[in-house]
Design brief:
The protein is an alpha/beta fold. The chain is built from 23 helices and 31 strands. The protein has an eleven-stranded mixed β-sheet with strand order 7-6-14-8-9-13-10-12-11-15-16, sandwiched between helices. It is globular, with a radius of gyration of 27 Å. The N and C termini lie far apart (57 Å). Bound molecules: zinc ion (2 copies). The site of one zinc ion has 7 residues, from helix 3. One zinc ion binds next to helix 3.
Length: 751
């Protein structure tokens, strides 16, 4: 007689809403085991009993064969007394107690659903909301946990008999697929004019007709509205730019499939994997010289942001249009993207001729994520749809729950409990009321979803950031201020599961320094609890303060002073050049900064690449685009000794000015400047290694979004024997600051 074995199994991780219970049900039935499975607040709880060999096989297969969208973090097995279960059942969810289960990110339409979408015999043929347990909306439609239909924006759609039968059949692909629906019972697509009146006819066909005629259409997607025009249509793209008040910032393009994408960009295996991954991010790729893309889509850029369809609606639209489509965020200038119908009609009515709408509400807005393949890895530049809210695991657990409020530009927040860091999706620049509201509501929603009551609130040192002000308004928690560049390096450490100490190179636009001046070209000795400033770029005045950020030519003036008469940059800006030189010389309204971003700005303006900017980082981004990657020459920059090393950025600017006067071309000068910055970083790190004995270097800050600078600096540091840490899962820009703040606050709490 074989003995009966009984075990209780807790599975934690992303195991709800991903087909885990039917998977367990089928597995247990196949192995002839009895018991039951249900969702609980921690994930999935299973009681299973039967022959010892069967139970052992069950436990092996549980992790080995888990469903595609699941992420198992931990399995706990406890033996118990057989309960005499009669067969195996799926029990109702237990919503009581703490809510610790994880919500998965939204996922691109799966191949099975795509087959049905294209099959005239299928009852969901051409249905724009087809989904199943392996794909479809998740985070953006979830109102609360546990993840069940009543707590999603599908609550209002009662399932028809056919959908209900699939939903309740454990052998069906749609068993407990919460957003499942069909043309008989689910959301409906409609095309409206700009005043909100519904247009008759097939909405997809109507939309495509408008697009072909050069019209702008607002399309309700997964995490918000997009504005669409055909990518090859110059007049439409230019019109969209004008109406959106977006002068130069590149638009993203959606291609129907990989074959169509290959006509736009060079796509290798790594890029193809990113494009077809279930997160379906925008992937920045080298643009082909003859790509059929209008000039206004991505002016001044050698790369193009490409994505593939990730909802059935996108698949239908792109198939019918049969050419690539610009899909840019549905907003005016810097506001958050619209995600509600009425708001979209109100805010985008002056931009779009028509609205492709539907009645499945978007509960949480999520922009498209942006990534770039990088030397066998990936660089995430904007982390949003498809990635959030899935947590990152930290190296050591926090003692108390932490909320980190981030910085100001490219804002995110981060909630930390135990080892899990929940970084919010990209929220935007916290400079207006709408974005601030999105930030505050987002914090509330995450706190509810993951049942976190922060006992520590971390913030930037900048007193005027809205994120800092919000942190100070939250009562009942300990406040922890974290210096901006320390947060950058801590973010890079946390991203790599390390604790330091390292030599941290934090190069960015601006951050509030511990001495009240503006930092941004920093060499730190940093671990998660503390940092020491060991070196920095030599400070220069920012003539006119924030005006110098919008007008990079002012930085050229600050660096060049009056030492290079007859330069074009002075001639182009002649009416104000002398005044700005005087401002810088007298220090009036000219705060000193060690910013690396401003150094790039100065050279960009010097070379006539960009005197004034229309989006953050534009001058530096375009300078990189101009640089000849084959250029091997370099400019020397002095690294001055002292307790704190000072790296003289003005040497680089003067060398560039001398080359310019000698008639050297822009691509060569830009290349030599990039190489000069790289050399100076490596030399500084060598000196700091001698002083500190540290051999690890962490590279962070928005300036390291510059691919040329990042790849060269990382390679040369490795050649010099350093171990290099770079960002992988969170952005090097200020979008990663909240993770760094959270890691620092948690580490200090353990001291
Ligand atoms: Zn599917
Ligand atoms: Zn139905």
């Amino acid at each position: 007689m074989t003995s009966l074995k009984h075990v209780d199994v807790h599975v934690e991780g992303i195991v709800q809403g991903v087909g885990f219970r039917p998977f367990v049900y089928c597995l247990a039935n196949r192995l002839g085991l009895a018991g039951r499975v249900r969702n609980d607040v921690n994930g999935v709880f299973i009681e299973v009993e039967g022959a010892l060999s069967g139970v052992e096989e069950f436990l092996t297969a549980l992790e080995r064969d888990a469903p595609t969208l699941s992420e198992i973090e931990r399995v706990t097995v406890v033996s118990g007394e057989p309960a005499g279960h009669d067969g195996f059942t799926i029990a109702a969810s237990d919503p009581s107690g703490l809510r610790r289960a994880l919500v998965s990110a939204d996922s691109a339409t799966c191949d099975d659903c795509l087959r049905e979408l294209a099959d005239p015999a299928d009852r969901r043929h051409r249905y724009p909301f087809i989904n199943c347990t392996n794909c479809g909306p998740r985070f953006t439609i979830v109102r609360g946990v546990p993840y069940d239909r009543p707590l999603t924006t599908m609550a209002g759609f009662a399932m028809c008999a056919a959908c209900a039968a699939e939903y309740h059949d454990p052998g069906d692909r749609r068993y407990h697929a919460q957003p499942t629906c069909c043309p008989a019972c689910g959301p409906r697509l409609r095309l409206h004019d700009a005043r909100g009146a519904e247009l008759c006819g097939d909405p997809i066909t109507g939309c495509v007709t408008l697009l072909r005629a050069g019209g702008v259409v607002a399309v309700k997607g997964l995490g918000g509205f997009h504005l669409a025009v055909p990518a090859a249509h110059e007049q439409a793209a230019a019109t969209l730019r004008g109406r959106k008040h977006r002068a130069d910032k590149p638009f993203a393009v959606m291609a129907a499939d990989l074959a169509q994408a290959r006509r736009l960009c060079a796509i290798d295996t790594a890029a193809a994997e990113l494009l077809t991954s279930r997160a379906r991010p925008i992937v920045l790729l080298p643009r082909l010289p003859d790509a059929p893309v209008a000039p206004s889509v991505a002016p001044g850029n050698r790369s193009l942001g490409i994505m593939l369809p990730y909802t059935p609606l996108h698949h239908l639209l792109l198939a019918e249009l049969a050419e690539p489509l610009v899909l840019t965020s549905g907003n005016v200038s810097d506001e958050p993207i619209a995600h509600e119908d009425a708001d979209a009609l109100a805010r985008l009515g002056g931009i779009a001729e028509a609205f492709l709408l539907h009645d499945r509400a978007i509960h949480v807005r999520a922009d498209d994520s942006v990534v770039r393949p990088a030397a066998g890895q990936v660089s995430v530049l904007r982390r949003a749809r498809g990635y959030a809210p899935e947590p990152l695991a930290l190296r050591s657990p926090a003692r108390r729950p932490v909320l980190a409020c981030g910085a100001e530009l490219k804002s995110t927040f981060c909630l930390l409990r135990g080892r899990r860091a929940f970084i919010s999706q990209h929220i935007g620049d916290l400079e207006n009321y709408e974005t601030l509201r999105s930030f505050v509501e987002g914090i509330d929603h995450y706190c509810g979803l993951f049942d976190i009551r922060p006992e520590i609130v971390a913030h930037d040192l900048h007193p005027d950031y809205l994120s800092t002000k919000h942190a100070r308004e939250i009562g009942g928690a300990d406040l922890v201020g974290v210096q901006h560049h320390h947060a950058h390096i801590a973010s890079c450490l946390a991203d790599n599961g390390e604790a330091g100490p390292v030599i941290g190179v934090a190069f960015d636009g601006l951050g509030y320094g511990a001495d009240g001046t503006l930092w941004g070209g920093e060499f730190l000795r940093a671990d998660l609890t503390s940092y020491e400033r060991l070196g920095h770029l030599a400070p220069v005045p920012m003539p006119g303060g924030s005006a110098a950020i919008r007008q990079p030519w002012r930085m050229a003036a600050a660096y060049l002073r009056d030492e290079h008469p007859g330069l074009d940059v002075a001639r182009r800006n002649a009416p104000h050049w002398a005044d700005v030189l005087a401002l810088a010389a007298d220090g009036i309204n000219s705060p000193m900064t060690s910013s690396a971003g401003r150094l790039f700005d100065a050279v960009s303006a010097l070379l006539g690449v960009r005197d004034k900017i229309t989006y953050e980082g534009q001058a530096a981004i375009e300078l990189e685009q101009h640089a000849d990657p084959a250029e091997t020459g370099s400019y020397p920059a002095a690294v001055r000794d002292g307790d704190v090393l000072t790296l003289d950025g003005s040497d680089l600017v003067h060398a560039a000015a001398a080359d310019l006067a000698a008639g050297v071309g822009t691509p060569v000068i830009a290349g030599r400047f990039h190489n000069g910055v790289t050399d100076a970083i490596v030399r500084t790190c060598r000196t700091l290694r001698e002083r500190t004995g540290l051999t690890g270097v962490a590279l962070s800050g928005g300036v390291f979004q510059n691919e040329l600078l990042l790849e060269r600096t990382a390679a040369q540091l490795r050649e010099a024997g350093f171990r290099v840490l770079r960002h992988v899962r969170v952005p090097p820009n200020d979008g990663g600051i909240s993770l760094g703040q959270a890691a620092v606050a948690a580490a200090r709490d353990l001291m």
